[in-house]
Amino acid sequence: MDLKTLLDTPPWDWPRDAGRLFLKILIDRRADESERLVAATLAGDFTVINDDLADALLTVVGSANEPERLRARSAISLGPVLEQADSAGFEDPDDVPITERTFRHIQNSLQKLYLDSSTPKEVRRRILEASVRAPETWHKDAIGNAYSRGDKEWMLTAVFSMRWVRGFDSQILAALKSADPEIHYEAVNAAGDSELDAAWSHIVQLVKDTHTPRPLLLAAIGAVGSIRPAEARKILADLAGSDDEEIAEAAEEAISMTEAVPDDEDDDQPLLGQPEKTDKWVN
User: Fold this and answer.
1) Contacts by 252-256 with C-beta closer than 8 Å and gap 24+?
2) Beta strand residue intervals within 62-205, DSSP E
3) pTM for the full model?
4) Rounded CA separation 69/74 (Å)
5) Mind listing the domains of the chain with CATH numbers?
6) Residue 281 to residue 82: CA distance in whole angstroms
7) Per-residue pLDDT for 262 more than 70?
């Protein structure tokens, strides 16, 4: 099996033993680092992740003897399953591919590693980005400190993390004015996920501006549907007919969020709605 080809193969088409292969390569320190990075990337997918793979990823994250890039990538791969466990709970074991014991162990271990000043910056950033997907009390201070460091990379991580942790409206609004395109992009996502009505005019302007970069436009489309679903129908109608398939699908998905909103709902009121988060991490 060519491991790297699986990066471009849908998970449902992976061989049945793909998870065992990822585990074997991930724990083999004699394996090529590039292959271990691929294994770490794929190991977090829901089709293969389980207690054994999660433990292996966590072991890599916590090992000072492992390459920094591999530690960082392994941390990020834990994010999706942490979010799933946090949202679904453990009443039905079929809802989450890891046990509650493993979930708690990951949470506790990531917190300790993050608070350990000897943990490399890149690894700490990725730990925060992954762990906030199952928010805990320590995250608010961690995000606030990261935002106020005066370091562009830490600010980027902080704004990304604000998608999952509430209480940062003023910081998100400030980040929307950032000249840094990556921070601006994450701020748009955070505004949407926080249903931040004060960001509405800025988000709408991005949607209507024909020069808005495509990734930023996609983020703004999702934010429109989250902040004011009742108004999204009118604003996104033209984009739903776009020749760009991805833009059209994003607009249609955002508009579909308005189906539960009564037609006579006051358009000036922010309504509930939240776009699906992904396993993406920031640069």
Assistant:
1) 253/222, 253/225, 254/221, 254/222, 254/224, 254/225, 254/226, 255/225
2) none
3) 0.88
4) 9
5) 1-136 (1.25.40), 166-278 (1.25.10)
6) 14
7) no
